[in-house]
Design brief:
Two copies of one chain form a homodimer. Chain A is an alpha+beta fold and about 250 residues long. In chain A, helix 3 crosses helix 4. In chain A, strand 8 and strand 9 form a beta hairpin. In chain A, strands 1, 2, 3, 4, 5, 6, 7, 8, 9 and 10 form a ten-stranded mixed β-sheet that branches. Chains A and B meet through strand 4 of A and strand 4 of B.
Amino acid sequence: MQKVKCILSYDGTDFHGFARQRNLRTVQGEVERVMQSLWGCAVETFGASRTDSGVHARCQALHFVLPSDRIPVTQLPYILRHWLPQDIVLVSAIPVGSRFHARHDALWKQYRYTIDTALAPDIFARRFALHERRPLDLESMRTAAAQLEGEHDFTSFCAARAEQVSKVRTVYAISLSVGDNQQLYIDIAGNGFLHNMVRVIVGTLLQVGLGVRAPGTMTEVLARRDRRAAGFTAPAHGLCLTHIAYPALD
Amino acid sequence: MQKVKCILSYDGTDFHGFARQRNLRTVQGEVERVMQSLWGCAVETFGASRTDSGVHARCQALHFVLPSDRIPVTQLPYILRHWLPQDIVLVSAIPVGSRFHARHDALWKQYRYTIDTALAPDIFARRFALHERRPLDLESMRTAAAQLEGEHDFTSFCAARAEQVSKVRTVYAISLSVGDNQQLYIDIAGNGFLHNMVRVIVGTLLQVGLGVRAPGTMTEVLARRDRRAAGFTAPAHGLCLTHIAYPALD
């Protein structure tokens, strides 16, 4: 039994999220459909992160058991790239040990939220960035973001319908940086994320940046453990899964 | 009579080019349709460049006569942005003199062709970059590009069906640079461009970069004055109109 770990990138615009759902176009559904037609049998894949509808990924990870050795693992990226739809790219495929699990073995993950702060929206960023032309106070946003770093109960930053029992997560770092064409990047790394957590953090940071909330707000929002204490959920299209770290051995 | 100069950017993917055509979705057609519904009368616009089907623009220029002073020119970008489709952004609108003409007054233009040279295509660049994973010899490409700078008869680099009588144009500069995520940018500035000229130049440069043509090829291709002497026409989706220069007075 040969297990394979794949890295995928996708433009989430036209998907109902990563995880397979009956009768809806999902990333996992498309990947499994192509694999089934390639090998002539059902292939079950296991993804590292269940990204939501409209959320993008530069490096989603998944694993599956290779149904046959007809196609060498090294050739898989070239062959699958040919068959996958245009909005999914198989970046790499490597053989891994039989105990590898894309979700359980993930050490930490990083998401990037992109905000286009130009006066007129950048046409080339419209699918991947939230446009906000009102001036943002980055220093206040950085002050607020720093309060979220570390281990906290993130109940306030989690969709009410989230299923996870424990709401305690560790945010390793939140950094704000400005890139080309006045894009503001909010990079968040942590050991795990609750449903909508990054988007609620970004929505709340935006309120700080716009002066609607004080820079010291986050400590109080965390303590409230109530979704209503935080800000709005930033739209999905600005969010991208950018990194998943694994132990070096695979 | 108040003339207005507008700067537009657009994602050319879903347009049959810039210039209006009956029964086809074009950038000019969409802009005029929105203007007609805004002012309740037909508005004729004049664009600086007729970009082809699938070609993008960061700064297309156009002018038109304001049908009424009901909407101040300064407010036009905000109002038109609201009504224009998602793949067109009105970047700016300024009043200009009555003799201004977007096409006739243009001093020079710049186009950028983007090539994604990463082994696996960048999912976020797929609409705006040609993917070429074979190694490219940039020094040979630069040597070839330099032979095109200056005033030349560009018949060899022009679609056979091009309508322009004189095929003499001046290329001010061709520069190759490498950006984020292994993107190769080919920037071409000149006083005017024949139909498909940039795309044929890029196709020929790619053949040089791949070693199919010698770096010294361009001088001979120019001298032949025959489209068949040059390389293939690079696909439209990698091309973007990036700058149009006008005299400072407007």
